[in-house]
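Reopening this one. Same input as before:
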Amino acid sequence: MRGKRVHFFAEEQDLRQLISAFEALAPGCQYFETGSFASSTIPTYHSLLDVPNLGTVHHGDWIHARGVLVLPSDIPLVIRPVDQLAGGVRYMIDQLANPYGFVLKLGGIFQPGVLVASGASTLATDDASLALFGSLARRVKKQTRVDTFYVGHQAYSHLQAGWRLVLNVRSPIEYDLPKQ
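Same output, byte for byte:
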């Protein structure tokens, strides 16, 4: 199954501008943190601007950045319970059980001098979800393009100042986004 995706670098100010523009065009979306949870009470946000620590990451790898499932307002969230071998249940929020909308990975500053990538992706095939994803992707693609990534204004300033813009801080420097 093919999906759609867009990868970009953005620090907090870039993310806030992108989110504000997206939410103005797509009001009423639902936002749920993705991942595995001990409880069926899932972190939910009224706006992406409410996500804690927006623009920072705790891991130097974009795969481990906070993910948010963005759903159209009329689509209910499906929580996928997963029985654990050691006993108990974990509750999963992902696109396996929620094939609509898209997942937004919120990258940001890992440590001074290192900015981890963000990205949005969807496996959805319905028109409403593709339009929702397209609303964000169009905003991202208005940013400066460097190699295969789009780069927000502040992130670009960091790149020019010598910061590492990375998918994974542990990767060799030659895998960083190249300075232009």
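So the earlier flakiness isn't reproducible anymore. For the record, Helices lie at 12-25, 127-140, 153-160.
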